[in-house]
Amino acid sequence: MKNLNKDIERHYLKEGLFEAILNRLNNQNIDLGAVKRSDIAGVDEFHVRGASVSRELAELIHINGLKVLDVGCGLGGPCRMLVDEFNCNVTGIDLSAEFIKTARALSKLVRLDQRTDFVVGDASNLPFEDSSFDVVWTQHVQMNIPDKKRFYSEIKRVLKPEGLFLYYDIFISKDITIEYPMPWASSSDHSFLFNSNEMGLILNELGCKCLRATNQTEAGIEYFDVLIARLKDFGPPNMGLNVLMGESTKPKLLNLLEHLKNGALILESGVYKKESS
Ligand SMILES: C[S@@+](CC[C@H](N)C(=O)[O-])C[C@H]1O[C@@H](n2cnc3c(N)ncnc32)[C@H](O)[C@@H]1O
């Protein structure tokens, strides 16, 4: 597991990420003393459909003021949104030390560092007490985690009774060979895709009840189609996921789009509730 986690951390590693983001803000003549969340939203929301889908996810429940854990928080864009727009108390945890360092620096840059907390750690071994959070939130992370039971058990453990689990994720849907690289893995060695029904069975066994599940695949495909048309007309954006994925951005996004279109993969969001025992 230690080696797998190291490999996954290496997959996402982009050294000097914060400096690269500052350079791009400078290129746009943005005053570094007055950076807005929207100025960095192209890079700090590392999932299909960026900030708009995070806002939709938050709006599925009455999240205002709640204590939230973002598992696999990446650069922390969704954490800052939850603090800034929904007055939540948010902790983000991620395997990548570089991402957590960058998440902290970005929070400082947009003056939200007093209200966001970021921790380096493994989602399969959460360093939090039982029943610590009202909401646990995760987007596009479980594909890197082989032991799904352990992952969802940890989420359930740190949730308070009646607490809510919000997810927006990529699941396998048809038995078609997946082409790599993908945004989360360069090869199948680090990719552990499974079916959302299997997630449901695990969560039900753990005593969590599905309140809502929405297939988001069409919205994801539309988003990619617009993005690709824009790339053809204008080239890579100054502040986009290309800052994170570099030269492999195009094959990764095209492979993901292809598999959303051929039905091998789906995007799904939803809400589970931890039943009080
Ligand atoms: C595609 S990114 C999504 C980041 C963030 N959730 C977002 O949507 O902006 C996947 C993230 O999962 C993290 N990750 C993968 N395996 C993990 C693990 N076992 N524990 C914690 N984080 C993990 C990666 O480091 C990466 O930041």
Give a quick set of tags describing it.
Rossmann fold; 41% helix; single chain; 11 helices; 277 residues; alpha/beta; binds S-adenosylmethionine
Describe the fold and architecture.
- With about 280 residues, the chain is α/β, with parallel strands linked by helices.
- It is about 40% helix and about 20% strand.
- Strands 3-2-1-4-5-7-6 form a seven-stranded mixed beta sheet, with helices on both faces.
- The model has no long low-confidence stretch (mean pLDDT about 95).
- The site of S-adenosylmethionine has 25 residues, from helix 1 and helix 5.
Spatial strand sequence of the major β-sheet? 3-2-1-4-5-7-6
Largest sheet: 7 strands, mixed
The second-level CATH architecture of one domain is 3-Layer(aba) Sandwich
Radius of gyration, in angstroms, nearest whole number:
18 Å
CATH third-level topology of one domain: Rossmann fold
The CATH C-level class name of one domain:
Alpha Beta
Number of H- or I-type helical stretches: 11
Overall, the morphology is: globular
Structural class: alpha/beta
β-sheet strand percentage: 15-25%
Q: Give the tally of β-strands.
A: 7
Any low-confidence stretches, pLDDT <50, length ≥5?
none
What is the N-to-C succession of helices and strands? HHHHEHEHEEHEHEHHHE
| List of distinct ligands in this structure | S-adenosylmethionine
Straight-line N-to-C gap: 32 Å
CATH fourth-tier homologous superfamily of one domain: Vaccinia Virus protein VP39
Q: Calculate the mean pLDDT score and round it.
A: 96
Portion of residues within helices: 40-55%
